[in-house]
Protein backbone atom coordinates (compact mmCIF):
# COMPACT_ATOMS: atom_id res chain seq x y z
CA UNK A 1 0.00 0.00 0.00
CA UNK A 2 1.36 3.40 -0.98
CA UNK A 3 2.02 6.07 1.63
CA UNK A 4 0.74 9.62 1.43
CA UNK A 5 1.79 12.89 3.03
CA UNK A 6 5.56 13.41 3.28
CA UNK A 7 6.21 9.78 2.23
CA UNK A 8 4.18 9.73 -0.94
CA UNK A 9 5.91 7.60 -3.54
CA UNK A 10 7.04 4.79 -1.23
CA UNK A 11 5.18 1.94 0.45
CA UNK A 12 3.18 2.58 3.62
CA UNK A 13 3.44 -1.12 4.49
CA UNK A 14 3.84 -4.54 2.89
CA UNK A 15 0.86 -6.20 4.51
CA UNK A 16 2.09 -6.56 8.10
CA UNK A 17 3.31 -3.28 9.62
CA UNK A 18 3.68 -4.80 13.09
CA UNK A 19 5.76 -7.69 11.76
CA UNK A 20 7.86 -5.22 9.78
CA UNK A 21 8.65 -3.35 13.00
CA UNK A 22 9.59 -6.56 14.75
CA UNK A 23 11.96 -7.51 11.94
CA UNK A 24 13.99 -4.40 12.76
CA UNK A 25 14.74 -5.73 16.25
CA UNK A 26 14.84 -9.48 15.51
CA UNK A 27 16.44 -9.86 12.07
CA UNK A 28 16.82 -7.19 9.38
CA UNK A 29 14.30 -4.74 7.96
CA UNK A 30 14.83 -2.79 4.73
CA UNK A 31 13.22 0.63 4.35
CA UNK A 32 12.80 2.28 0.97
CA UNK A 33 13.82 5.94 1.33
CA UNK A 34 14.27 6.55 -2.38
CA UNK A 35 11.95 9.57 -2.21
CA UNK A 36 14.48 11.53 -0.13
CA UNK A 37 16.58 14.14 -1.89
CA UNK A 38 20.34 13.66 -2.33
CA UNK A 39 22.53 16.58 -3.41
CA UNK A 40 26.20 16.41 -4.47
CA UNK A 41 28.54 19.29 -3.67
CA UNK A 42 31.96 19.22 -5.30
CA UNK A 43 34.82 21.65 -5.80
CA UNK A 44 37.81 22.68 -3.67
CA UNK A 45 35.83 25.19 -1.54
CA UNK A 46 32.88 22.88 -0.75
CA UNK A 47 33.58 22.25 2.95
CA UNK A 48 34.50 25.81 3.94
CA UNK A 49 31.52 27.06 1.92
CA UNK A 50 29.08 24.64 3.57
CA UNK A 51 30.58 25.57 6.94
CA UNK A 52 29.45 29.18 6.49
CA UNK A 53 25.90 28.17 5.55
CA UNK A 54 25.07 25.57 8.17
CA UNK A 55 25.03 25.01 11.92
CA UNK A 56 27.66 22.25 11.88
CA UNK A 57 31.46 22.51 11.84
CA UNK A 58 32.26 21.16 8.38
CA UNK A 59 35.42 22.97 7.33
CA UNK A 60 37.65 20.00 8.15
CA UNK A 61 35.24 17.09 7.76
CA UNK A 62 37.49 14.09 6.93
CA UNK A 63 36.79 11.78 4.04
CA UNK A 64 34.65 8.89 5.17
CA UNK A 65 32.94 10.77 8.00
CA UNK A 66 29.25 11.54 8.36
CA UNK A 67 27.34 14.07 10.44
CA UNK A 68 24.20 16.21 10.33
CA UNK A 69 23.59 19.93 9.89
CA UNK A 70 20.84 22.53 9.79
CA UNK A 71 20.12 25.55 7.66
CA UNK A 72 18.45 28.18 9.83
CA UNK A 73 16.51 31.35 9.12
CA UNK A 74 17.96 34.67 10.30
CA UNK A 75 15.79 34.27 13.43
CA UNK A 76 17.17 30.81 14.16
CA UNK A 77 14.18 28.77 12.96
CA UNK A 78 14.97 25.45 11.28
CA UNK A 79 14.51 25.57 7.51
CA UNK A 80 16.44 22.44 6.48
CA UNK A 81 17.80 19.34 8.21
CA UNK A 82 20.41 17.44 6.24
CA UNK A 83 22.70 14.48 6.54
CA UNK A 84 26.27 15.31 5.47
CA UNK A 85 28.68 12.65 4.19
CA UNK A 86 32.18 13.25 2.81
CA UNK A 87 33.35 10.70 0.24
CA UNK A 88 36.63 10.58 -1.70
CA UNK A 89 36.01 10.89 -5.42
CA UNK A 90 37.62 8.60 -8.00
CA UNK A 91 39.88 11.48 -9.03
CA UNK A 92 40.80 12.27 -5.43
CA UNK A 93 38.74 15.47 -5.45
CA UNK A 94 36.07 14.35 -3.04
CA UNK A 95 32.32 14.96 -2.94
CA UNK A 96 30.13 16.09 -0.05
CA UNK A 97 26.71 14.48 -0.20
CA UNK A 98 23.69 16.06 1.46
CA UNK A 99 20.50 14.05 2.02
CA UNK A 100 17.27 15.66 3.10
CA UNK A 101 13.49 15.47 3.32
CA UNK A 102 11.68 14.99 -0.01
CA UNK A 103 9.44 18.00 0.62
CA UNK A 104 12.38 20.39 1.09
CA UNK A 105 14.97 18.94 -1.30
CA UNK A 106 14.16 21.28 -4.20
CA UNK A 107 14.19 24.33 -1.93
CA UNK A 108 17.53 23.32 -0.41
CA UNK A 109 19.05 22.82 -3.86
CA UNK A 110 17.81 26.24 -4.97
CA UNK A 111 19.13 27.91 -1.82
CA UNK A 112 22.58 26.36 -2.20
CA UNK A 113 22.82 27.32 -5.86
CA UNK A 114 21.87 30.91 -5.01
CA UNK A 115 24.62 31.09 -2.37
CA UNK A 116 27.57 30.03 -4.55
CA UNK A 117 28.69 33.54 -5.57
CA UNK A 118 32.48 33.37 -6.09
CA UNK A 119 33.10 30.07 -4.26
CA UNK A 120 34.66 27.21 -6.23
CA UNK A 121 31.84 24.73 -5.77
CA UNK A 122 29.34 22.86 -7.92
CA UNK A 123 25.93 21.81 -6.63
CA UNK A 124 23.72 19.26 -8.38
CA UNK A 125 21.20 16.46 -7.85
CA UNK A 126 23.22 13.34 -7.04
CA UNK A 127 21.10 10.71 -8.82
CA UNK A 128 21.30 8.40 -5.80
CA UNK A 129 18.49 6.63 -3.95
CA UNK A 130 18.54 5.60 -0.30
CA UNK A 131 17.83 2.22 1.31
CA UNK A 132 18.06 1.81 5.09
CA UNK A 133 18.73 -1.51 6.82
CA UNK A 134 18.00 -1.94 10.52
CA UNK A 135 18.38 -4.99 12.74
CA UNK A 136 20.88 -7.44 14.24
CA UNK A 137 21.27 -9.39 10.98
CA UNK A 138 22.13 -6.34 8.86
CA UNK A 139 25.83 -7.15 8.47
CA UNK A 140 25.07 -10.73 7.38
CA UNK A 141 22.47 -9.57 4.87
CA UNK A 142 24.79 -7.00 3.29
CA UNK A 143 27.62 -9.52 3.01
CA UNK A 144 25.37 -12.23 1.55
CA UNK A 145 23.98 -9.79 -1.02
CA UNK A 146 27.51 -8.84 -2.08
CA UNK A 147 27.00 -5.18 -1.15
CA UNK A 148 29.39 -4.82 1.81
CA UNK A 149 31.75 -7.55 3.04
CA UNK A 150 32.18 -5.69 6.34
CA UNK A 151 30.36 -2.76 7.88
CA UNK A 152 32.02 0.64 8.09
CA UNK A 153 32.71 1.79 11.62
CA UNK A 154 29.87 3.68 13.34
CA UNK A 155 29.82 7.30 12.23
CA UNK A 156 31.74 6.58 9.02
CA UNK A 157 30.99 5.93 5.36
CA UNK A 158 32.62 4.10 2.44
CA UNK A 159 32.30 4.37 -1.33
CA UNK A 160 30.64 1.40 -3.04
CA UNK A 161 32.21 -0.36 -6.02
CA UNK A 162 29.16 0.10 -8.20
CA UNK A 163 28.79 3.79 -7.34
CA UNK A 164 27.25 5.56 -4.40
CA UNK A 165 28.20 4.98 -0.79
CA UNK A 166 27.20 3.30 2.46
CA UNK A 167 27.23 4.83 5.93
CA UNK A 168 26.83 3.42 9.41
CA UNK A 169 24.78 5.70 11.67
CA UNK A 170 25.01 3.35 14.69
CA UNK A 171 21.26 2.76 14.49
CA UNK A 172 21.21 1.68 10.83
CA UNK A 173 23.26 1.11 7.71
CA UNK A 174 22.15 3.37 4.90
CA UNK A 175 22.93 2.67 1.25
CA UNK A 176 22.94 5.43 -1.35
CA UNK A 177 22.79 3.67 -4.69
CA UNK A 178 22.59 4.80 -8.32
CA UNK A 179 18.89 4.93 -9.16
CA UNK A 180 19.06 2.67 -12.23
CA UNK A 181 20.33 -0.21 -10.08
CA UNK A 182 18.05 0.32 -7.09
CA UNK A 183 15.49 -2.38 -7.91
CA UNK A 184 18.15 -5.05 -8.47
CA UNK A 185 19.96 -4.12 -5.26
CA UNK A 186 16.72 -4.26 -3.25
CA UNK A 187 15.91 -7.68 -4.73
CA UNK A 188 19.36 -8.99 -3.79
CA UNK A 189 19.02 -7.71 -0.24
CA UNK A 190 15.58 -9.25 0.07
CA UNK A 191 16.89 -12.59 -1.19
CA UNK A 192 19.67 -12.36 1.41
CA UNK A 193 17.14 -12.04 4.23
CA UNK A 194 16.12 -8.38 4.51
CA UNK A 195 12.40 -7.93 5.09
CA UNK A 196 10.84 -4.98 3.24
CA UNK A 197 9.27 -2.50 5.65
CA UNK A 198 7.14 0.53 4.93
CA UNK A 199 6.93 4.08 6.20
CA UNK A 200 4.37 3.07 8.86
CA UNK A 201 7.00 0.91 10.57
CA UNK A 202 9.72 3.52 10.07
CA UNK A 203 7.68 6.25 11.75
CA UNK A 204 6.55 4.00 14.61
CA UNK A 205 10.15 3.04 15.38
CA UNK A 206 11.31 6.66 15.30
CA UNK A 207 8.86 7.96 17.91
CA UNK A 208 10.41 6.30 21.01
CA UNK A 209 13.80 7.79 20.10
CA UNK A 210 12.32 11.32 20.19
CA UNK A 211 14.02 11.94 16.85
CA UNK A 212 12.14 14.73 15.04
CA UNK A 213 11.32 14.88 11.38
CA UNK A 214 11.34 18.25 9.65
CA UNK A 215 7.87 19.48 8.74
CA UNK A 216 6.18 16.66 10.66
CA UNK A 217 7.36 17.16 14.24
CA UNK A 218 8.51 20.72 13.64
CA UNK A 219 6.82 23.89 12.46
CA UNK A 220 8.03 27.22 11.13
CA UNK A 221 8.85 28.39 14.70
CA UNK A 222 11.03 25.45 15.71
CA UNK A 223 14.54 26.26 16.90
CA UNK A 224 17.27 23.62 17.38
CA UNK A 225 17.20 24.03 21.17
CA UNK A 226 13.70 22.54 21.32
CA UNK A 227 14.73 19.17 19.84
CA UNK A 228 17.74 16.85 19.89
CA UNK A 229 19.21 18.54 16.81
CA UNK A 230 21.06 20.85 19.21
CA UNK A 231 23.37 17.92 20.02
CA UNK A 232 23.34 16.06 16.68
CA UNK A 233 23.36 18.85 14.08
CA UNK A 234 24.75 21.97 15.82
CA UNK A 235 28.32 22.78 16.83
CA UNK A 236 28.19 25.39 19.58
CA UNK A 237 31.78 26.57 19.22
CA UNK A 238 32.01 27.21 15.48
CA UNK A 239 32.08 30.56 13.71
CA UNK A 240 29.19 32.64 12.51
CA UNK A 241 26.28 31.25 10.53
CA UNK A 242 22.76 32.46 9.91
CA UNK A 243 20.57 32.07 12.99
CA UNK A 244 23.49 31.50 15.39
CA UNK A 245 22.49 34.34 17.73
CA UNK A 246 19.20 32.69 18.64
CA UNK A 247 20.80 29.28 19.20
CA UNK A 248 23.54 30.72 21.45
CA UNK A 249 21.22 33.00 23.42
CA UNK A 250 18.66 30.30 24.19
CA UNK A 251 21.40 27.76 24.93
CA UNK A 252 23.07 30.09 27.45
CA UNK A 253 19.77 30.91 29.12
CA UNK A 254 18.79 27.23 29.08
CA UNK A 255 15.12 28.02 28.52
CA UNK A 256 13.81 27.03 25.09
CA UNK A 257 10.10 27.83 24.95
CA UNK A 258 9.01 24.32 23.93
CA UNK A 259 10.25 20.75 24.01
CA UNK A 260 9.62 17.59 22.01
CA UNK A 261 7.99 14.82 24.07
CA UNK A 262 6.53 11.35 23.62
CA UNK A 263 2.81 11.00 24.22
CA UNK A 264 1.09 7.77 25.22
CA UNK A 265 -2.37 7.77 23.67
CA UNK A 266 -5.62 6.20 24.83
CA UNK A 267 -5.65 2.75 23.22
CA UNK A 268 -9.44 2.49 23.44
CA UNK A 269 -9.98 5.51 21.18
CA UNK A 270 -11.41 4.71 17.76
CA UNK A 271 -8.97 6.99 15.96
CA UNK A 272 -5.50 8.46 16.18
CA UNK A 273 -4.78 12.19 16.42
CA UNK A 274 -3.90 13.96 13.21
CA UNK A 275 -0.42 15.32 12.66
CA UNK A 276 -0.54 19.08 13.12
CA UNK A 277 -3.55 19.02 15.44
CA UNK A 278 -3.59 20.69 18.84
CA UNK A 279 -2.52 19.36 22.22
CA UNK A 280 -4.89 20.86 24.77
CA UNK A 281 -5.60 20.84 28.50
CA UNK A 282 -8.91 19.78 30.03
CA UNK A 283 -9.92 23.45 29.97
CA UNK A 284 -9.29 23.59 26.24
CA UNK A 285 -6.10 25.65 26.39
CA UNK A 286 -3.73 24.89 23.50
CA UNK A 287 -0.33 23.89 24.90
CA UNK A 288 1.27 22.10 21.96
CA UNK A 289 1.16 20.50 18.54
CA UNK A 290 0.92 16.82 17.54
CA UNK A 291 3.69 15.49 15.29
CA UNK A 292 4.28 11.88 14.20
CA UNK A 293 1.56 9.41 15.26
CA UNK A 294 1.68 5.62 14.95
CA UNK A 295 0.88 2.24 16.48
CA UNK A 296 4.11 0.85 17.95
CA UNK A 297 4.57 -2.91 18.09
CA UNK A 298 5.22 -2.81 21.85
CA UNK A 299 4.04 0.57 23.14
CA UNK A 300 0.72 0.75 21.28
CA UNK A 301 -0.56 4.13 20.05
CA UNK A 302 2.07 6.81 20.63
CA UNK A 303 2.97 10.20 19.22
CA UNK A 304 5.56 12.93 19.28
CA UNK A 305 4.38 16.38 20.29
CA UNK A 306 5.91 19.81 20.70
CA UNK A 307 4.60 21.22 23.98
CA UNK A 308 5.24 24.26 26.14
CA UNK A 309 8.17 23.66 28.49
CA UNK A 310 6.30 25.47 31.26
CA UNK A 311 3.56 22.83 31.27
CA UNK A 312 3.24 21.51 34.86
CA UNK A 313 3.99 17.82 35.35
CA UNK A 314 0.88 15.70 35.60
CA UNK A 315 -1.29 18.01 33.51
CA UNK A 316 -4.14 16.05 31.91
CA UNK A 317 -3.90 16.43 28.13
CA UNK A 318 -5.81 15.71 24.95
CA UNK A 319 -4.18 15.22 21.56
CA UNK A 320 -6.76 16.13 18.95
CA UNK A 321 -9.40 15.14 21.49
CA UNK A 322 -7.77 11.81 22.40
CA UNK A 323 -6.61 11.26 26.00
CA UNK A 324 -2.82 11.62 26.12
CA UNK A 325 -0.08 11.47 28.75
CA UNK A 326 3.52 12.66 28.48
CA UNK A 327 6.04 9.86 28.97
CA UNK A 328 7.59 10.03 32.48
CA UNK A 329 11.10 10.22 30.99
CA UNK A 330 10.16 13.53 29.39
CA UNK A 331 8.95 15.05 32.65
CA UNK A 332 12.47 15.10 34.10
CA UNK A 333 14.05 18.55 34.19
CA UNK A 334 16.70 18.42 31.47
CA UNK A 335 17.91 21.98 31.79
CA UNK A 336 21.69 22.34 32.15
CA UNK A 337 23.31 22.81 35.54
CA UNK A 338 26.71 24.38 36.03
CA UNK A 339 28.45 26.30 33.24
CA UNK A 340 26.59 27.22 30.04
CA UNK A 341 26.69 24.50 27.41
CA UNK A 342 28.47 26.87 25.05
CA UNK A 343 31.51 26.57 27.32
CA UNK A 344 31.63 22.83 26.71
CA UNK A 345 33.42 21.56 23.61
CA UNK A 346 30.94 19.12 22.12
CA UNK A 347 31.93 16.47 19.61
CA UNK A 348 32.92 17.98 16.32
CA UNK A 349 31.42 15.27 14.18
CA UNK A 350 28.21 13.85 15.59
CA UNK A 351 26.41 10.86 14.19
CA UNK A 352 23.24 11.17 12.20
CA UNK A 353 20.34 9.83 14.23
CA UNK A 354 17.12 8.16 12.95
CA UNK A 355 14.79 10.45 10.86
Task: Give a written overview of the molecule.
This protein is an alpha+beta fold and 355 residues long. It is 19% helix and 28% strand. It has eight helices and 17 strands. The chain has helices at 17-26, 46-53, 105-114, 138-144, 182-191, 199-206, 229-232, 244-253; strands at 29-33, 37-42, 66-72, 78-87, 95-100, 122-125, 128-134, 157-159, 165-168, 173-178, 195-197, 258-265, 278-281, 286-296, 300-308, 317-319, 322-326. The strands form three sheets. Strands 8-9-10-7-1-11 form a six-stranded mixed sheet. Strands 12-15-14-13-16-17 form a six-stranded antiparallel beta barrel. A five-stranded antiparallel sheet has the order 3-4-5-2-6, with helices on one face. A hairpin with a 4-residue loop joins strand 9 (165-168) and strand 10. Helix 1 crosses helix 6. The chain starts with 16 loop residues before the first helix and ends in a 29-residue tail after the last strand.
